[in-house]
Each structure stands twice: as structure tokens, then as C-alpha cells.
Design a protein that fits this description.
Radius of gyration: 23 Å
Shape: globular
Number of helices: 18
Bound molecules: nicotinamide-adenine-dinucleotide, uridine-5'-diphosphate-glucose
Length: 459
Amino acid sequence: MKVKKICCIGAGYVGGPTMSVIAQKCPDITVTIVDINEQRIAAWNDSDLSKLPVYEPGLAGVVAEARGRNLFFSTDVDTAIADADMVFISVNTPTKTYGKGKGMAADLKFIELCARQIAAASKSDKIIVEKSTLPVRTAEALKSILHNTGSGVNFHILSNPEFLAEGTAIEDLHDPDRVLIGGENAEAVQALVDVYASWVPRERILTTNLWSSELSKLTANAFLAQRVSSINAISELCERTGANVDEVARAIGTDSRIGSKFLKASVGFGGSCFQKDILNLVYIARSYGLQEVAHYWEQVITMNDHQKHRFADNIVQTMYNTVSGKKISFLGWAFKKDTNDTRESAAIYVADALLSEEASIVVYDPKVTAEQVYADLDYLGTRTPAENRRLVSVVGDPYDAAERAHAIAVLTEWDEFKTYDWHRIKDHMMKPAFVFDGRKLLSGSKLDELGFQYYAIGE
Ligand SMILES: NC(=O)c1ccc[n+]([C@@H]2O[C@H](COP(=O)([O-])OP(=O)(O)OC[C@H]3O[C@@H](n4cnc5c(N)ncnc54)[C@H](O)[C@@H]3O)[C@@H](O)[C@H]2O)c1
Ligand SMILES: O=c1ccn([C@@H]2O[C@H](COP(=O)(O)OP(=O)(O)O[C@H]3O[C@H](CO)[C@@H](O)[C@H](O)[C@H]3O)[C@@H](O)[C@H]2O)c(=O)[nH]1
């Protein structure tokens, strides 16, 4: 079976870039990305490519190449489903905020809504692809909803988790380490293999059973996050012993059994995936009565929370045990560089802790809007929106952020921070001028020379 029309439900950080690349690489397939969020779809259709709702290096070029040719963005979900022979589900699967599993389990209500809508809108047989990250055995629930419509339409369900990382999404999609496809029906699996084989070497397209594929996604994120928490645990020990965490990371990373990636100590991992997916893994393990397994993975989150708090505590302690009324300038708000995404960013939690100590905060991030910064703080509910706006300001120029600041905290590893005129920054700061580098991004020796009091994670 050859796929001619693809529909993707969900035009977010995954649906948008992933389907744009499929459209770019498979000009003979018509790809329609649909979403219920009208504003988002309008932004994807904006003729000004700088207004795309997702910032990713290289994405605008891919969209420019395919949009209007074989790539379309629409809010007409039913029509796109009815026309397609393959439907990707790429909607959000956040941590549940209510009921059983609150704070742990994945909230599958958006997935179920999609399944019901697919069931209602379909007039012909379809392959349904789970692109969202889902708990193992979700395909079973999907099957049950789709197979009980009584419409006589046949559905084959595949699991095809996405491994792209934000900030490098286009690179990751163009040249993935692997593409994973889980499924029971050989013809359906082959149809999706053929789509990816248009640009991905065949040996990098792995096929497994449905459950292995679903579970591999949670497992991959758990392993990656575990490495960050492991090196962050060592960073605290480095600070007490005179060891340097970058040197330790290099020393262990050259062991080919360990490998060098994902060993960068930081203020803590953020992003929409790691915490959510580990919590979900813990919840699943617990629901099978596997307490030790659950406890083991839960420590990854415990360590990450500790790292964020300890960074904020260290700022307070170093600044003579009080930041009340002091201006602390945040360089970076996004959860990593090269993205405008702030979901679960460590910056939010560090800011919250410092605001509780009555600090005032000025934020500069090259890609994050003031609106987003306030939305992130308001969402925590620690203080009123009015208070957040009184205590936090967001500026469009890093030098303005540094003006009369008592301290600078580096929260995101944006490359441009390294290129600033740090001499000029120091001149305009209060003295002593503190820098707390949560990313080990800046040159400590250079900043020391300039007269800063420089503190970095893991030194
Ligand atoms: N963000 C990442 O880097 C990443 C990477 C790999 C996997 N994932 C997984 O992919 C999934 C999507 O993540 P995301 O970051 O793209 O989320 P997102 O919130 O950016 O996008 C999801 C979109 O789905 C839309 N939506 C929800 N219900 C809908 C419905 N019934 N009909 C139409 N549209 C609907 C929302 O309006 C939203 O625009 C999640 O399961 C996530 O865990 C994310
Ligand atoms: O050595 C490291 C590597 C990462 N991080 C932090 O960890 C977080 C996550 O980074 P990264 O994994 O690069 O970005 P994500 O976009 O969250 O991507 C992860 O989550 C996605 C969603 O599931 C998966 O698809 C990707 O494979 C997986 O890397 C960020 O805050 C990083 O700053 C560190 O602190 N140190």
C-alpha cells in the first residue's frame, strides 16, 4: 500500500516540524496538519515566516519549500481525517492535574478525543499512527474505540514515537539516529517504513511490536534524563571537593561504554518531556506493583528538583543571605538554547524561589516573549499576576537587564551570551558584581579577571 494523503492531528512542536519534513522529503504525499487552535494554524499559515508558532533553526526554510505545494495547515479536522489514508496523532499528553494519577499519569483525554473524532469522520480504511508519547498499551484503548464504531471501516494502529530534541528538530528529523515503528499489521508497518525510507537509510528504520515501541519512548527519555541527574549529583560533590564537573564528565565520557553526550551539568533539566515521561513511567511501574522500579526512576526527578532549588539557595547564601530588594538579572528563560519553548524550564522554578525571597527579577531571552514569562509564573499560582508583574520585568536588551543589577544568573545556554561585552556589563552592575552560571557557559577565568564574583555549577 502506498500512502498518498497524510493527516496529522496536532500542529505543535512535534506535529509541525515532523510533518513539514515528511512533506519536504515526500513531494508526492499530500500532508495536512490540523489543530483546533485557530491562532496556531493562522500562525503556521502566516506569510511572514518569522511568525511561525514554533522557533526551530531551519524550520522556516522547510515550511517555505513545502507549504502550499503538498503541505497544508487547517482547522478543518474532519475533512482532513476523511481524506487521509494515514492519520498521525500528535496531540499533547501532559501530566494529569486531576483525579486518579494526578501529578503522575499521562492525561490521555486529548488522545481519546482524537480517536473518537477519527472514528466518527472516517469513511474509508486508515492507518492510525501514534506520534504522541504514550503509556505502554495505549494502542489497546485506541483499538477498542476505533473498532467499535460499527461503520465497517478498518483501522490499523502503529506506534511511531518521535525522538527529536527541540532546538535541533530539523537536523534530528533529516538525519535521525533511528526511526521506530511498532505494529501488528505487516502491510501497515511497511507503508510507514516506505514514507521514512524516502530519506532515512533503511537500516535505521527499526520495527518492533506495538508495546516495545510505546515503552521504548518512555525508556529513552528516562535514560537521557537519568544521565543529566547523575552528572548533576556529581556536580554538587565537585563543589565540595575541588573537583571540576566538566573535567569529570570528560574523563568518564571518553570511556566508550559511557559515551560523552548528555553529561553537561546544569541548573536542572527542563522541557515538556523528561519530567512528564518519567512521572508516567513511575506511575505505570507502580500500577503493576513494581515499587522498586518506580522508586528507582523517581530519584531522577528528586535529584532534578534538588538541583534547581540548590541553585537558587546558593544565590541567596552567596549574596550575604538576602536577596530582598535586590535586582537579579536572568539571562535566558527557555528550557534550552535555540527554542522559544519554556515548558518546565528551570528558570521558572529558580525565579519562583528568588521571588519568595523578595528579589526583583529582570529577564532577557532572545526568543521568549514577556507574555510567556508572565504566563509561566502565573501558572505556578505562588503569587498574584499583579505581584508577578510588579516584581518581574522582561527586557529586549541584555545590557538593559544588567543595568544596576546585583547579580546575573545564566539559566539558558544561548550562544550569544558568550559574545557579550562583559566589561561593559560589569561597569553598569552594582558591586560586588555576581554571576551565577547555571550552564557553565561563560569563561570563569575571564570573568574573574574582569572582577566578577563568578560561581558555576560543579566548580
Ligand atoms: N516537544 C517535543 O520535543 C516532543 C518530542 C517528542 C515527543 N513529544 C510528544 O509529542 C506530543 C505532542 O507534543 P508537542 O510538544 O507537539 O505538544 P504541543 O502542545 O506543542 O502541541 C499539541 C497540539 O495538539 C493540539 N490538539 C490537542 N487536542 C486536539 C484535538 N482533539 N484536535 C486537534 N488538535 C488538538 C493542541 O491544540 C496543540 O496545538 C506529546 O505527547 C509529547 O510528549 C514531544
Ligand atoms: O547534558 C545535558 C543535556 C541536556 N540537559 C537539559 O535537559 C533538558 C532536555 O534537553 P534535550 O533532551 O536536549 O531537549 P528535549 O527537546 O527535551 O528532548 C528530549 O525530549 C524529547 C521529547 O520526548 C525527545 O524526543 C528527545 O529525544 C529528548 O532528548 C534541557 O533542559 C537541557 O538543557 C542538560 O542539562 N544536560
